[in-house]
Request: fold
Amino acid sequence: QVQLVQSGGGLVQAGGSLRLSCAASGRTFSTYAMGWFRQAPGKEREFVAAISWTGRNTYYADSVKGRFTISRDNAKNTVYLQMNSLKPEETAVYYCAADPTRTITAATTLDDYHYWGQGTQVTVSS
Reply:
């Protein structure tokens, strides 16, 4: 069993930056692929970014490429999402997730993730 506890988020003006953190319990965190998803009001949860367990492979939604960066520190059992140049339409609840089944790659679909964080609100004002 893995527990994911998120921190960060909040209110930021358009064009600003935020960093989200997701701390995992369990000694096997370093072997999990990790992902970030978001869900805006009235919309489905969507993929944002993912990272393989080594951190060597990263994946991004087209809409965030060049602005968001996913990273991980396996010594701290933590994955991060640095978000720059935020847009009002990116207001959403952001979730981190863990996939214990992949090693070299990371998934970009919700169903591949077994464990989820509690979610954190990100609000981007115009």
Remarks:
- The chain has a mean pLDDT of 94.
- The chain has no helices and eleven strands.
- The longest strand covers residues 92-99.
- The radius of gyration is 13 Å.
